[in-house]
Known about the structure:
CATH superfamily of the largest domain: Resolvase, N-terminal catalytic domain
Number of strands: 5
CATH topology of the largest domain: Rossmann fold
CATH architecture of the largest domain: 3-Layer(aba) Sandwich
Radius of gyration: 19 Å
Amino acid sequence: MTKAALYTRVSTKKQNTDRQVAELQAYAQKQDFEVVLIVSEVVTGSARKAERPGLEQIFGLARKGEISEVVSLELSRLGRNAMDVRQIIIDLNDLGICTHIVNRGLRSLDQKRKKDSTVMLILGLLADLAEMEKEQLVERINSGLDQARRKGKKLGRPAGAGEEPDHMLKKYPGVVKDLKAGLSIRQIVATRQVADKTVQKVKKAMAIT
Length: 209
């Protein structure tokens, strides 16, 4: 039987992956796939592959030849950085793994396990759209915050509501790794796509702990 891994992702702990898992299990059953791994991650879509242990676990199975299919409900679940999403799918293709995007009815390899150039083009365009959607959301949020400030509303967390040092270190392991390697804050901001204040907080947390 064809063996598959199901990948689901949400951005915050207030969300859950129940709907994604249910739809992917139904798809796998219809395709007669044996599901050997279900990954449910709580991580921002802009996080790099190295910062997503569940995705790394899938690649581990792929390298061992223990799966041949990776199934995700939407392309945006794989990420919202177009370049990263493309690379994830290409890396899986190179390992002989077919990526299924259920809501679009797309698969990265054809029935002969060959790369489908047309589908790859479509997936690339969809990845671009997902990234654009994220950018537009950020713009709307920032616009709303600016409007609130103009009206004199106080924004931000209450005093003393900052995150605990241990939580910061667990939340941003990639940043911790880069700081230990001696990378500058500017380099980390560019590669990890996090705010410079976040890097500074992690650096401070490392000094405390």
